[in-house]
Amino acid sequence: MKKQHPSPLWAESINLWLDSLKAAGYSPNTIGTRRCQMSALSRALEGDPRDVEGDDLLAHFAAKDWKPETRKGAKNACVSYFRWLKVSGRSTWLTWVMRTSPSSYAAAATGPVR
Questions:
Q1: How much of the chain, in percent, has pLDDT values that exceed 70?
Q2: How many whole angstroms separate alpha carbon 78 and alpha carbon 6?
Q3: From residue 44, how far is each of 20, 28, 38, 59, 99 by CA, in Å?
Q4: What's the number of CA atoms in the CB half-sphere (13 Å) around residue 34?
Q5: Dihedrals phi, psi of 5, to nearest 5 degrees
Q6: How far is CA 42 from CA 27, 97, 99, 101, in A?
Q7: Residue-wise pLDDT tens digits, 45-77
């Protein structure tokens, strides 16, 4: 798999987040997949990751014609990254995760609830 490069404003935080996944024992394949997912998101959204809002993420996910497993993996990477950004003290943001019902976000990001 070709290494995907993130947007310059996202690069340092994505690399540190990936280091945290490695330290937690994630497999090299998982880390490579997460790198690709977040690099693609960073290039799509541009700007500073601390300026991303929930609506930006919902619009990004809504515009993708992904299969359910692809959508689920991308959503999980996104949630993991932004949670890490908050917990590591690199951002005071992440209110969209705190305010938004997890079930409504999951439905929007993974498909209809059956």
A1: 77
A2: 14
A3: 23, 24, 10, 11, 24
A4: 22
A5: -100, 130
A6: 22, 18, 23, 24
A7: 988 998 888 899 999 999 999 999 999 999 999
